[in-house]
Each structure stands twice: as C-alpha cells, then as structure tokens.
Known about the structure:
22% strand
Amino acid sequence: MIRFVQRNTYYLLLLLLSFVISGAMPFNSEKIIADFKLKNTDGKLVSLANYPTAKGFIIVFICNHCPFAKLYPERMNELNAKYQSFGVPLIAINSTDTAVYEDDGYDKMITKATNEQFNFPYLYDNEQTVAKNFKAIRTPHAFVIWKENGNWVVKYNGAIDDNGAEPKSAKHHFVAEAVNSLLSGNRVENISTKSIGCQIHLRR
C-alpha cells in the first residue's frame, strides 16, 4: 500500500512538473489586465488609455530573433487593418531579455518595424512587467482583451492561428474568431490554445 501511494505521488509530481515546464497550467480567461505605458518604435509612449474608444485589443508578444515570431508580421498587419476600424486595434510587445538575446534590443526593433512595415505599435517591455502581468510565455503569444465595466479582461490567449508555416492552410484563426464572437456580442468558445514559439525568459 505504501509503495502504491509513493508511486502515485511520484507520478503526480511528474505530471505537475510537466505542466510547469510546458507553461500549460490552466489560464484564467477572465483575468483583469492593468494598463501600461511602453515605448513604441517611433519613440512615443503608448498605453491602452491612448485608445479611449477601443472596445478591445489584440495584444501579441513577439520579438526580433524568434523564427516562429518571424512567420506572423504580415498576418498581424492584416489583423490590425481589419479590426482597428471596429475598435479593436493590435499592439505588439517585445519583452525578451536582451541580456540573453542581443538581437531583441530597441534599435533593432526599430529596424524590424520599418523593414516589415508594421501598421501597429511595436512596444518595448524592457522591465518585463507587462509580460508578467499577462503571463505571456512564448513568442508569438496572442491575447484578446475586452473592456467590461471599465476593466480590460482577457477573453482569449494562445496561438494566432493553427498553421504558422502556411497561413493559407490554417483551418482555425483563433484570434479572429475570438474578436468576431465578441463583436457579435457572443462568448468566446475557444478561450485558450497552446502558443507555439520561443520561450520568453523572464527575469525574477
């Protein structure tokens, strides 16, 4: 009996450890997000309060170096172009530790935003406070937040879609589906998916 309990306790610990490593612990889809103020690549500070008529936001954590994040700028431009007129603009945030990845420095963010013709803000979260607030774990990691009773509430978090390599082959456009549901006054059915990409190394 003792061996049975020990063995099951061991397996339970392994299971919990696997969740911690993979970042797959359950996510609170109704988490309230505090406003922030970060530097954009144009040198200006940007916060959610700069958008007084916004119904919601698409927030995507990306960076310069990650191969997975490099697959999505064009799709992010398309999302922003489509939904900002409905009051749901897209904002990209770089929270990568530049001590680990020098390519993610602010100057190179400016170059990337210019070369790839970003039509959305690309903000520098140098202190990683915003990534910690959102509990962002990968690049890219997308969130859809919505305004409810004066608060910004997370309604979706995870992947942008289900095919990073071949956008035309994607069957599920998770972010777009979430925004469409919210604009229609409906609940988001798929509130969380697994973000696939490079890990954001958060400093303590």
